[in-house]
Specification:
The protein has two domains: 311 residues, ABC transporter transmembrane region fold (Up-down Bundle); 246 residues, Rossmann fold (3-Layer(aba) Sandwich). Strands 6-7-8-3-9-10 form a six-stranded mixed β-sheet, sandwiched between helices. The protein has a four-stranded antiparallel β-sheet with strand order 2-1-4-5, with helices on one face. The protein is elongated, with a radius of gyration of 35 Å. Helix 6 runs antiparallel to helix 8, helix 8 packs parallel to helix 11 and helix 17 runs parallel beside helix 18. Strand 4 and strand 5 form a beta hairpin. It is an alpha/beta fold and 611 residues long. The chain has 21 helices and ten strands. Helix content is 62%, strand content 10%.
């Protein structure tokens, strides 16, 4: 089952927003930790805010208008009681703020980790259909918006609800007539709030989509800076980035316009309610139905009533941003990985070098919205049936688009086949636990991807905790010790982001060393020497001898020398395994491999980039 996302501009209304919030809260059970104590503190904090209006009324009516004139003792008593109540209110409010902030950050940190892990659980196919910047924004800026809402708007929502309830009850006690006047004034505003909420939901969903798109373009621009400069396309790249930024600006301005209009409307209704209460209080005071103290207290209470209403308007604004962010996070979590870890129910690979069996495997890439088992795209591998013995060194060759890389991705379970089964050591790969699979099967990509840090840091990603002595021994066994000595800081040399401080060949050497210390039983290589200088190629070939010794090795071959050195060559053509055998036998046989060999020997590569 594949999850689909509602198109931009068609975001669900208030009911959909509430469903999103409920689902989001259900995914963050940490938010309920200590909720009872937090709510009690909120009750104290909000109830205490009604003390000042009551103190004003008691001071004026009892202290200033008593029959005996000024009653200073009554005034001091009321003021002292009010001071104590305000102090308790402040302490309760501070404790509530701290508890809420701590709980929110704990809960959303857990949600961030869950979303990050889920993205890594998605197959390469799923990730390829998403902009990297958009995926990053789900885990960063979208959850940041949720955090801001929960800490600011969520806090205000709790206190405003309590304050509104307390203010309304006290207002009714003082004068039900004046209370009705205020409520009648705010009825149209409350009805209009739903209209604003629907439009704010759509507007802020578009804003979050534009943020993701902008980050995606920005990430591509930064990563692709060398290509941009090499081809002189700075202006086109800048225009594309400017367009993404402008799209975000327009969406944000539109959402801000709705937000400002909503807040302004609340201010107008608040002023009208205050004026109506003053007029009503004067008219009732003429007939001695209310006292001066009551009218003044009521004006304070109206402020306590209006503030939560205006805060509610801001909460709705912030809430729409949070709902949009939460929905984008939930969209990721709703994506069901089509390459799922069987977990505790899965099996471990048997010990020792692993044999490989492709049993009538077919694969077609899914179209948007499809998963592998439901794919209707063109066939990339067609009924591949082959067995590879343990400790065999196999080269996989073929023209661009022949299915070589797809074969390797299915072997390492970066994807699952459309039909048939892949078995390692006699165990279906889809039944193998990921911890066993990733520990025993290692793929070294052609680009030798590295992470910012030192060479030692990157090699240790193959096996954490390896000592410096063992690391040095591994480099010696691979014949890379002299190369390490030539580096400015040896193994502590920093590689830079994406390994950009090293050459392509040096990045590949680090990647090979990382695979060596991982000590896999099945090694899958995307030709490691296809884009290196002759000196580095000599080092790489020497390292490959040590790396592949005693292991089952499958190499996506781009060079004739790799196929010549292999125990067996698999030849793919348009997704079909058309030939297999030793290099010399295949050359004599002719066919597809014969044509590729002839092209290689003429110095014109018939094999392009990995397919």
């Amino acid at each position: 089952m594949s999850a689909t996302t509602a198109p931009v501009g068609a975001a669900p209304g208030p009911d959909g927003a509430w469903r999103t919030l409920r689902r989001g809260l259900a995914l963050s059970p940490e938010l309920r930790v200590g909720l009872t104590v937090t709510m009690l503190l909120a009750l104290l904090a909000t109830a205490g805010r009604a003390i000042v209006p009551i103190a004003v009324q008691r001071t004026i009516d009892d202290g200033l208008e008593g029959g005996a004139g000024l009653d200073i003792r009554a005034v001091i008593t009321v003021v002292a009681a009010a001071g104590v109540a305000v102090l308790i209110t402040a302490l309760a409010s501070g404790a509530m703020n701290y508890r809420l902030a701590a709980v929110v950050e704990t809960a959303l940190s857990s949600l961030r980790v869950r979303a990050f892990r889920h993205i890594h659980d998605l197959s390469m196919l799923h990730q390829a259909t998403q902009q990297r910047g958009s995926l990053v924004s789900r885990v960063t800026s979208d959850i940041d918006e949720i955090s801001r809402f929960m800490q600011w708007a969520g806090l205000n929502l709790i206190t405003a609800t309590g304050q509104l309830t307390v203010a309304t009850l006290v207002m009714f006690v003082y004068s039900w007539r004046l209370t009705l006047i205020v409520l009648v004034v705010f009825v149209p505003f409350m009805l209009g709030a739903r209209w604003f909420q629907r439009r704010l939901t759509v507007a802020y969903m578009i804003v979050r989509e534009r943020v993701g798109a902008m980050l995606g373009v920005l990430a591509e621009t930064v990563v692709g800076a060398p290509v941009v400069r090499a081809y002189g396309i700075e202006q086109r790249t800048q225009d594309r980035l400017d367009s993404a930024i402008e799209d975000h600006r327009r969406a944000a301005v539109r959402a801000g316009g709705y937000s400002s209009l909503f807040s302004g409307t609340g201010e107008v209704f608040g002023a009208v309610a205050t004026a109506a209460a003053v007029v009503g209080g004067v008219l009732l005071g003429v007939d001695d139905q209310v006292t001066v103290g009551t009218v003044l207290a009521f004006l304070f209470l109206i402020t306590l009533f209006i503030d939560p209403v205006l805060i509610a308007a801001e909460v709705i604004n912030e809430g729409q941003t949070a709902v949009a962010g939460w929905r984008r996070v939930l969209d990721v979590l709703d994506l069901e990985p089509d390459v799922a870890d069987p977990g505790e129910d899965g099996r471990a690979l048997p010990p020792g070098p692993l044999g490989i069996r492709f049993s009538q495997v077919s694969f077609r890439y899914p179209r948007p919205g499809e998963v592998s088992r439901e794919a209707t795209g063109p066939v990339v591998l067609d009924d591949v049936d082959v067995e590879i013995a343990p400790r065999t060194r196999v080269a996989v060759v073929g023209e661009t688009g022949s299915g070589k890389t797809t074969f390797a991705k299915l072997l390492t379970r970066l994807m699952d086949p459309f039909e048939g089964r892949v078995l390692l050591g006699g165990v279906p790969v889809d039944e193998v636990r990921f911890d066993s699979l990733r520990r025993r099967v290692v793929m070294v990509p052609q680009d030798g991807a590295l992470f910012d840090g030192t060479i030692a840091d990157n090699i240790r990603m193959g096996r954490s905790g390896i000592s410096d002595d063992d690391l040095a021994l591994a480099m010696l066994e691979l014949g890379l010790d002299q190369w390490v000595e030539e580096l400015p800081d040896h193994l502590d040399t920093r590689v830079g982001e994406r390994g950009d401080s090293l050459s392509a060949g040096e990045r590949q050497l680090v990647a090979l060393a990382r695979a060596y210390v991982a000590n896999p039983d099945l090694l899958v290589l995307d030709e490691a020497t296809s884009a290196v200088d002759p000196a580095t190629e000599v080092r790489t070939q020497r390292a490959l001898v040590g790396l592949t010794s005693g292991r089952t090795t499958v190499t996506i071959a781009h060079r004739l020398s790799t196929a010549e050195a292999a125990d067996e060559v698999l030849v793919f053509d348009q997704g079909v395994l058309v030939q297999r055998g030793h290099h010399h036998d295949l050359v004599a046989e002719g066919g597809v491999y014969g044509r590729l060999h002839a092209s290689w020997t003429r110095g014109v590569s018939g094999v392009g980039t990995a397919s």
